[in-house]
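Record pair follows.
FIRST:
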Amino acid sequence: MSQQTPVSRVIPAWTAWLERWATPEDLAGASTAEVLLAWNRLGYPRRALRLRDCAAAICEKHGGQVPRTREELLALPGIGEYTADAILTFAYHRHCTLLDTNIRRVLARLQGYAYPPPSPRKSEREYAASLVPSDDESASQWNGAIMELGSLVCTASKPRCEQCPLASWCSWLEQGKPENVQRKGSQGYKGTHREARGKIMAALRNAEQESSGAVTLTSLRELSGLPEERFSPALSSLLNDSLVEKTSKGYRLPH
């Protein structure tokens, strides 16, 4: 839920989600429309469906219990390396090398770089692994501590270096905080394909909540407020991703 979404927006959705679906078995029995409505505007609604698919796989293959090994976690729908490692370290306090945005930034600055490369490299993983304590509990505490350090102190902009306990080991600070010449600005949201998809999904969620049934193509375009050249590609991609279904009466969230 918190991928590319502020935690302040995630907390109420996360709380409501767990109150409604406390176990994998509860979530596995939910309909697609229910899951998408609960996900609301958190972004990337495919993640909501993968979470439901993941819950079903946990019930079918693991008796409703989230697996405790990296291999079994990676075999679940929608679970990548970061999520598997996050589950191991935070849920089960197991030894692993966790690399999230904040941790990668801290480790990059210790080595003299303002920011890490766009995606983790072998050398970066090896360096991170060399710093993680060997025992399970200490490794879990290390991962949590470095993540919090990056989130609260070693931030992307205006880092609080004077408060950092690692300042005396930081090569980036020692060099005078040089900027990465290859760093690229983040992509905006307005005017993107993602925004167009989000407008269509919002219109369909409203229709679902108002029990107005399927929405005709003309009405959906008007409700989305999108011009044709943006509306049609966005709707097609949502249909291809099974996030919208077409019925004889129009379009709606999948049931």
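SECOND:
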Amino acid sequence: MQPITIAKHAADQTGKLLLKRFQNLHRRDVDAKSAHELVTSADRAANLLIQRTLRKAFPAIGVLSEEGHNRPGKLRWVIDPLDGTTNFVLHVPFFGVSIALMEGDTSLFGIITCPPTGETFIGAHGQGATKNSKPLHRHPSRPLSQAIIGYGYSHSIGSLHASLVIAEKLSHKLRAVRHAGSTALDLAYLAAGRLDAVIIAGPINLWDVAAGVVIAREAGCAIQNEKGNEWTPKSRDLYAGPLPLLAHLRKVAH
């Protein structure tokens, strides 16, 4: 089978596991990674399920996962087994599974599922993007004053502070600025036209964006850094959306 087929199967099976855990989550299943970051037994179980599935089919491909058991490789899986853990703990049905296959700094394809809604977003380099097998195309850019953007951050103090500064600067210029708690789904929602742009303050964890970047790009969005250049994993901040809007956002935010 092709890697994308196996990855989709892994994401689907993991989604089923997470839904069962979501409905029966107990306090004893939750730990604190840091002052701002939670982890659950569901995160760990989801990580093991994905990695076992992928490694069985493709043992030579490396792995980078938020929850560990990693192995280096130029060709590697980049995994967030449960993006939106705090939402999951609070019984907020907005969380996802994110799997990408990267070669060097390039995402060959990405898969993001939202188990509570049954949606699957897929993007493959040069082959377009879909939601539940239907093509995704970026909606026309709206004026800055009508834009609704999502913003995100990693769990470092620097990233959190920078994101709040950006959100404050933008809040009076836009229709709405939202932090929904899942960077992967924010990028998938951008591809689906549910957000006008997404800004993520660095330093950025690659597993948060590897799948979403290729999905949004294949839907017609630009993916840039804070200077307006093409985003790479070495960039500080990530700006995703239509080019004219991103130029306005950067001007206001910096």
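COMMENT: The domain at 3-135 is CATH 3.30.540.10 (Fructose-1,6-Bisphosphatase; Chain A, domain 1).
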